[in-house]
């Protein structure tokens, strides 16, 4: 058998965020994606998965409070951000993708979802000496604030529902 080894060089500096090669000497086809590289100077973006039943409540610019699994909430608090983009259509998860496994862990199966891009206010959770830096691949929970109201307005709205006014 005849083997040719090639060296592959990226066109830009950055961090490898996804590598599709699993074995040394693996064969790749021409045009096949082998890696995703995030430019070193790129702003941090967070991707969230939203079910189609909730998408009608969302809009760009809404506030987001995020909890990061690797940075416990009692120690570091939440990370604030804004919704910067919402996918135009649903996305079908790939059976081997991270999003598909995240959906199946939440009991949603492999159903379609919308992808929401969030721009965080900071790359660090916490204050003072107790800080946790965000890194590629971290998982968490994003609570998107779809409506804000005062306690009095909330109570009045509930009272109207009870009395059918």
Give the total of beta strands.
Answer: 9
- Note the gap between the termini: 83 Å
CATH architecture of the largest domain: Beta Barrel
Q: Could you spell the SSE succession in H and E letters?
A: EEEEHEHEEEEH
CATH top level label of the largest domain: Mainly Beta
Please summarize the sheet with the most strands. 5 strands, antiparallel
How do the strands of the widest beta sheet line up side by side?
A: 3-6-5-4-9
Mean pLDDT: 83
The backbone outline, from C-alpha atoms, is: elongated
Which percent bin holds the helix content?
Answer: 10-25%
Residue runs with pLDDT of under 50 for 5 or more positions: none
What is the count of structural domains?
Answer: 2
Count helical runs. Answer: 3
The gyration radius over C-alpha positions equals 21 Å
Strand content: 25-35%
